[in-house]
Amino acid sequence: xxxxxxxxxxxxxxxxxxxxxxxxxxxxxxxxxxxxxxxxxxxxxxxxxxxxxxxxxxxxxxxxxxxxxxxxxxxxxxxxxxxxxxxxxxxxxxxxxxxxxxxxxxxxxxxxxxxxxxxxxxxxxxxxxxxxxxxxxxxxxxxxxxxxxxxxxxxxxxxxxxxxxxxxxxxxxxxxxxxxxxxxxxxxxxxxxxxxxxxxxxxxxxxxxxxxxxxxxxxxxxxxxxxxxxxxxxxxxxxxxxxxxxxxxxxxxxxxxxxxxxxxxxxxxxxxxxxxxxxxxxxxxx
Length: 286
Hints:
single chain, about 80% helix
């Protein structure tokens, strides 16, 4: 919703100022179809050339998400840490082998099913169960697991950031394609140099619309989407860091309550529950 509101404010102010200065919208409307074809067509073509198929698929999958609010809320993090607390508590009371069935079949596990927003996120479940499985096997120490987690989180971050980076590059290219469209308009105008001044003025105006549209599309439409996608990636990475910190604290011998406190501390302050909020939520889930 914020994306739509932002676009409405931006376009209303830009074109509103133009109209208040007695600008003729028909000049822009008349040039719009051909200029948009040149700018968007050229930019999209270059976008396809400059990105691998997997990146194009990732962009297609990520774009709908920018029009939705962030799923990384305080409530989600409290659910995640409640799940971690219950898992670590079970390990502390019954031993590591007690979670083997939960780890191997998380979708059938009564433990995971209590936390649906986490259980339905396959990225989080895979990350969590993979490292719980390693803990159960007992083949790696805390330092080795931490290094492995860091590498996986880094890989996840770079992979998830690819769509946002691609959109940002597209935004950076749009002003240049606007200039291309404008130059073509000037070339067309120079070929009609014998026309009356009123006709030439209209042709030059149409050519300048190309530059205007290229800059508007870049900095008013496309670049903000790339920035928003990058912010969403940072949020998703923070969730993995929370899991990592909690599990490592447990491996180092801290009690479940202390381990989830380690995880709570790495969260952004805007979504981080207070100690009391988390404690009450955990007690309510028990």
